[in-house]
Structure formats: structure tokens, C-alpha cells
């Protein structure tokens, strides 16, 4: 399917095609006058290498480029910048000398920066960038740059290191990788295409499906030496900043000195004698984190010239400048180097759970954004101002809490975090006594229970399962999630296999990745609502005489979770979460099979988080779906029995136990049922559990069918 749309000129002037020996192999985007950003696998393909080759291309390896919307027939030559080569890898930490192993997703890295041998064509311009957080529709071009081959997608979730997008028009195929995703509403690039997930029988021809992109925060984290990218020019606050700068930098020389300093810090050419206040401000406003850099440059200039008290006493004009800067750049407080220093320190921190930290710093927020790491938390918190009467901004509060947690675990990184906080606090105008008081106030709570209450100590094996009709063949990907901060894909299977092979893969992951006693790790299956009645808890793997058989639902706790949650159910889900400790279970029996009756009963019990389903098999699927739509967390049901006695037994099973203990309780009931072969009607024999609880799921990278490729 082709989709025609007008694409903004700023996008087209930065679009770059990458050519291989037999034609276009991918795309790229111009980020400065001499640098081009693309995927590492695109560079490998252009050089005729294996797309996951980790070795750095040599200086003699040239990549042929074109800018089809600026100079279609002019061929450019680019070479890989060695310090900015990040081949695709399967782990957060860079792997040395080896491509991703078979069955592991190349989920991290896959970035490369090329430097042009000569000047860019007349009319070429670096693309403006912004982080993806607003969910606007984006467009992308095929490698040739032909505007008739265009793709539109809608961001589904930001789950770093990738952004997940649903393709809504056009097709994605070989040649989109490395190309920019253009948000027309915000007039900025929000990521570059890295992979696609094609569904259905048309996957081979590029039918619409799910696409993945590398967002700006990930690009900056992976490439700390990358010069700051351009951003769309802001409007509000510009005149206020000019007025404040005119008073702080009177005359030509101060403006020229500040412009030269700022140009050097941002890696941009200086305008020299042509510099004036307008050009100085345009330089700062046109580059990511340029406004915080401008404040730093002006502060240094005022201190060096004695125009401001070195003790930090601020003038009224300086206050006006900083206030206007927050209007122009509301989401950026840190300079480029401050941000890089912080991200470098956070990569060593393991003592803090990101979502718990976000909830502690923003207890008043109605809905917390999903974050996947500490760097992501601090990136989000930069946009928040402190509450009235509270001097500490949320960003500094978070870093202080991280430092206290690391000190409690006797990690040396806490000293560097404290030093970073003290240096940054001075620039925010926060005194040392205020900083010490905040540490004293939050220290006891952070140090005693740094990760409570939202995570389990035991590791979890999370299986994103796609059944193939009629439900006896499957594809999957397997995650490991542990309390030490690990959360990554460790195995993937995109060809159809049997349930026994799924169990074998889970057992392999348990042995090779978790190294835990069999009773500890929880196995979570994420499936679409239509497949919630799969008997995954009865799957087994035949063993030998030494090993014995491996029964999933007996050897360890196994629960079902839904990949079909929607935003519409979130409010109900949140309300039922808060009432889990006090609400009573709800029974939906044979009298409640009518959809209207089910809906009425669920609405009449808006705080019930646990539901017992006791109706015959033909009605169970639709009742389960209605429970999901109502935001219910936990559903217990018997696949065969639906009499009053069964309902009474299941109610007794959950009475008096906490929600977190339900999976283990169900496992023991299944074990008791097998241990009593003379009781074929034991309720544990066909007992199933949907446990979509408040500790929640992995990033939504594959909630539907997936067949991952690098386009």
C-alpha cells in the first residue's frame, strides 16, 4: 500500500539515502553540517558485511550517500566515526567482538555516525530533534526518498531503548532502517527506524504491523560524544531572554565572547564578528540543551568579569534571564556535560527501582509515565518544577534518593552522585544547608527499604506468547526480570513450535539465565484475551530417569497475564489496585453469563480486584474478557466444574491471604490435586489463574504477533 502525503521541508532537507552495491540499503538523517546518523546494520549492509558484524569499519571503508530532495544526482562519501560506532547487541552493556547469539534480539545499540568527506550540498540542513512523548502520528520515507513510498505510524509506547509504533498506512520493508521518523505536528524528528514487526500471511511482502524506532534519549545515551542535535526554534520567552541579555551583556565584546564559548561547547561554528544578541540566542534555542548551556556561559562570563558576586548572589536581571529560559526550554535544566555525567553514573546504580523512585518524587501525580531505567526517570523529571515552598526540584530529589540508596548498599558510586548533586545544586541556587536537610529528611526511608513496595524479590520469566490457530503451535519471546535491575529479552522464536518446545525453552532460561531454586522464579505468560483459556499451567516436558518430568504449573508458579489491556481500563484497574487489601472477592456463576448481567455485577462492585468465575466452558471466554475490560486484576476459574461447591472452594482458597501469595497458593493446589489421584474432581486439577496484578508487565514490545526484521 502506498500513501501520499506532503512532508515538511525541514525533514526532506536532512534526509539521506544509503547505497550498497546493488542499490539502496537504508536511510540516514543529517544531524550537523558534516555528520549523518543511521543504524549500524545499514552501514554493514552498505559495505557488504554481515548486518550484525560488530567490528568497526576502517577509514578505507566508504559509504555512498545521496540527499535525494536536495541534490538527487550528487553522490556523497561518508566514513564511520570510530568513537560513535555502536553495533547491534543483545545486552545493555556493549559486547566485545561478537554479534548477537542465535535466538537473542539485537535490542541495544545499532547506531552509527558518519562524517562526510566534503561539504553537504547547497540547501541541506540538519534535522531538528525532540524526544517522543506526545504520541502524534509520524511519517517515514523509503531509502530512495521517493515521496510516493511513504509510511505513517502512530506511537504506541516509549519503552527504551526503543519506541513502539503501530503502522497505520503504507508499508515497511527493506530500506526504511536508519531513516528519520518525522512528527509533522511538532516539526521534529522523534527517532530513527530500527526494526519492524510484520503480521499475517503478508509479512514477507511488508504488510502493516508494528515498527520500532530508536528515540532521542537512547541515541544520546548510546553516543555520549555526539554533538547536541538541533531542535525546533521556540517562540515563547524569546523577547524576554533578549531583554535580560541586553542588560547582562552590554556592548559587542561580551556578546562575542559568550558566542564563541557557546559555539565551542555545542560543537557549532562561530559567526565571529557577525555575532549579535539575536544570533547568540538563535544558536542556543536551535540546539538541544542549548539554553542551559547559554545560562552556564553567561554565568561564567559574569563571574569572570566580576559583574556578579562569586558567592552566588543573583541580580534581578539574572533572575529574569533564568525565568525566561524556563519558558523557552521548559523540559531542559542540565547542560550537555551535566546530563552526560549523570547518565554515566546512573549506569552503575542497582539499588533503586525506577517506578518506585518516580512515585516517591511525584506522589501528587495522577498518572505516572512508564519508565524503564534511572536515566529515563531523570529525563522525565527535568520537566517538573518544585512544589511551592519546596526548594529542591524533583530532578535533584531523585538523584539524592539514588545516592542514598547506593550508599546503603556500600557502592562507591554514591560519592560521585553526591558530588554531582552538590555541583548542580549550586547552579540551581540551592544552599548546602537545604541540601543537607533534605538528605536527613528522606535518608531513613530510602536506606531501610529502597525498593519497596512494587517489586518482588524473586526473578520472573516473562513469556510473550503468540498461539497459532487452533492453539497447538506457538511463537514467543522470553524476558528475564529480576530485582537487581535486569530486564531484557533472552530468547526469541519466530517459527512455529509445540508447547513442549516452549516449556523446554523456559527451562533452558531458568537454568542458564536465572540460576535460582525451582520454587523461586515466577513464570508469567502474556497472551491476547482470545487465548486466556490456554492450559499453559498443565504443560510439561518429559524428562529422563535422572531428571524427571518438568510440569510448569507444579515445578513453579505459573500465571496468565493479558496483552490486551487498554487505556480505557486503566482508571478501573488503578482503583481496584488501591482496594486490593480491603475488597471482597466477587463470584460470577452460571447466573451471570449474560453480558449485561456481568457488566452490571462488575460495575456494582467497582473495588473488587479478585473475581471467581464459575460458569460452563462455553461462556468462560467472554466473561474473562469482560473482567479485563472492567480492570479486574485476578481471576480464578475451573475449566470444567462450575457448581456452587466449586465456587465455595475457590473462595475459601483466597480467603485471608495477600494478593501476592495467590500464585503460590494456586501452585500448591495443583500439586495437591496430582498428589491425590483417587480424587479426579479435586478443584486444583483444572484450576487456572489470570493474575494481571499491580507489579505489571514488561515493556509492550510485542503484545501482538511478531516477526522481527531490520528493514
Question: How would you briefly describe this protein structure?
Answer:
The chain has 711 residues and is α+β, with helices and mostly antiparallel strands.
What report would you give on this structure?
The structure is a single chain. By secondary structure, this protein is an alpha+beta fold. The chain contains 21 helices and 24 strands. Strands 1-2-3-6-5-4 form a six-stranded antiparallel barrel. Strand 14 and strand 15 form a beta hairpin. Helix 5 runs parallel beside helix 6 and helix 10 runs parallel beside helix 11. The longest helix has 17 residues. It is globular and about 95 Å long. The two termini are 16 Å apart. The N terminus and C terminus are likely disordered.
Secondary-structure map:
Elements: H1 9-12, E1 15-20, E2 23-30, E3 35-38, H2 40-46, E4 63-67, E5 71-86, E6 111-116, E7 138-141, E8 150-159, E9 162-169, E10 180-183, E11 188-197, E12 210-215, H3 216-222, H4 238-248, H5 252-266, H6 277-285, H7 290-304, H8 316-328, H9 336-346, H10 354-361, H11 374-381, H12 394-408, H13 413-427, H14 432-448, E13 460-468, E14 473-481, E15 487-497, H15 499-514, E16 522-527, E17 540-541, E18 550-551, H16 552-555, E19 558-562, H17 570-578, E20 586-589, H18 595-604, E21 610-614, H19 617-629, E22 634-638, H20 644-654, H21 662-675, E23 687-691, E24 708-709
Parallel strand pairs: 13-16, 16-19, 20-21, 21-22
Antiparallel strand pairs: 1-2, 1-4, 2-3, 3-6, 4-5, 5-6, 7-8, 7-10, 8-9, 9-12, 10-11, 11-12, 11-24, 13-14, 14-15, 17-18, 22-23
Helix pairs in contact: 4-8, 5-6, 5-7, 6-7, 9-13, 10-11, 10-12, 11-12, 12-13, 12-14, 18-19
